[in-house]
Every structure is written in structure tokens, then in C-alpha cells.
Amino acid sequence: MTIYNGEMGALRRAQERERVAGIIARAMPAEGCGPAIPIAPARGPSMAVTPNVVMPDEKSRTGYKVEATGWRGFRAARAIDVFDTLDQREAVRARKEGRDPIPPFSKAQVTIARHYRDLVERHDAGGMRCASLEARRSGGGSSGGEFIDAYLATGNEIQQLRQRIGAGAAMVVRRVRPSARGKATASIIRDRDLVDAVCLHGKSFRDVLDGHGWAIKGQNIQKLSDALKSALDRMLGKKNTVRKILP
């Protein structure tokens, strides 16, 4: 059947309306969030969270209490990351299997992963401001000493966390049968590469395997998951998860 230009134009407009509607739907704040939170496509999908604050409480045994906050009872919005996605998938599997969900990662592991991500993002953004401060300093402006100190402290903390990750490898080519590797060009997946790919760039285990030429198999995904858990435990300072440095 011949489609004339007018019909083709109408089809393209309908497809574009559908595409834009999908973007707006994904950018909408989650249900229960405050009306002042904007629709932000760059933010991506979000979830509603209840902000908490620690307040003095004379009646409490500790002298403090945790109280939920929020503007006029509304909740805040937080962008969904890879750990939220893993939790959601586990919840779906658990419902299908009629059992309670088992979180893929502990709260402490997720917290340190997000802390590392936030540190790196803040440090990378601060690099631009440092360059601006240097330019102003040469012209006799404010030195911005406090910001520089904070910037350096953040960099030191990032370096400490990366030292805890170590130079080990999550997937080593020579330790895996060729049939389980995938492509002939499969390369070593180092712990640091795995942590950065998942925590900083939000990549899935499948993305990491594919990017390094490995076969996307359940056993390989499980190995990456276990390796990431160990790396996050080391970042938390747990001594029983130290990895040997590769030669």
C-alpha cells in the first residue's frame, strides 16, 4: 500500500507525540512528592522518599528521635539508580515465587556505593571551580581557600576508597573456561572497573560483561555480583575481604 506524504507526516507526528509522552512520563516526580518538584527529563525516573531528621527528645532513652519531615506532608523525590532497579527486580521475582524478597546488597553496601558516587560527582564538578579560582587568584581576587581545602579533602577520601578496592580482578580470563568466557577478545574485569561501571555510570552486570567481551550467563553475572559485594565491603573497611593484587 502506498503511503502518501500527508499520511507519512501524520505517522511521524504520532510517533513523535508518543516518544515525547514517554519522556514526560518517565520524568514525572513519583506519586506523593511535592508539587514544586519539576518535571525533569535529565533526572530520569524517580522514587518518593521520606526525609528524616534527628531531633532532641527528652523522653527517648538516647535523648534523640528520628522524625519524618517533608513540606506540608509531601515526600521528596530521588532519582532511581542501579541499586533501586536491582531491588525492584528482586521484588518482582519474590512475588512470582511467593516468598519474601532478599535484597541483593545490604544497606551498608548500597550506602557506601552511593557515597562514593556522590564524592566523585562533587569532586569532578569542583575541578571546574578550582580552575576558576586559580584564574581569579592570578588577578588578585579571593583565594577560595576553604573551597580548595574541601576539594582536596574529598579527593583524599576518594583515593582512600579506591585503595580499599584494590587492584584485584572480578573476572580473570585465564581462570575461566573458553566456553564460559564468550568472545575470544574477552578481557580482565578489574574490581575498580566493576565498581566504577556500576556505581558511577549505572551500568548493569550485563553491560559490564558485554563491554569486556564476556558471555552474558547467569554464572558470570553472579560472579560479578559477588565481586562487587566484596569490593563494597572493603570500601566499608571490612578486613576479611581483602583481595590479592594481580601480578
Structure overview:
This protein has helices spanning 5-27, 82-97, 107-138, 145-165, 178-181, 191-200, 205-211, 218-235; strands spanning 46-49, 52-56, 64-68, 76-79, 169-171, 189-190. The chain has 247 residues and is mainly alpha-helical. A hairpin with a 7-residue loop joins strand 2 and strand 3 (64-68).
In what order do the strands lie side by side in the largest sheet?
A: 1-4
Q: With helices defined by DSSP (H or I, 4 residues minimum), what is the helix count?
A: 8
Oligomer status: single chain
User: How many angstroms does the end-to-end distance come to?
Assistant: 65 Å
Low-pLDDT stretches are 242-247
Please state roughly what percent of the residues sit in beta strands, choosing from under 5%, 5-15%, 15-25%, 25-35%, 35-45% or over 45%: 5-15%
The rough form would be described as globular
Gyration radius over CA: 24 Å
SSE ordering: HEEEEHHHEHEHHH
| Average pLDDT level | 82
SSE topology:
Elements: H1 5-27, E1 46-49, E2 52-56, E3 64-68, E4 76-79, H2 82-97, H3 107-138, H4 145-165, E5 169-171, H5 178-181, E6 189-190, H6 191-200, H7 205-211, H8 218-235
Antiparallel strand pairs: 1-4, 2-3, 5-6
Helix pairs in contact: 3-4, 3-6, 3-8, 4-8, 6-8
Concise overview:
It contains eight helices and six strands, in the order H-E-E-E-E-H-H-H-E-H-E-H-H-H.
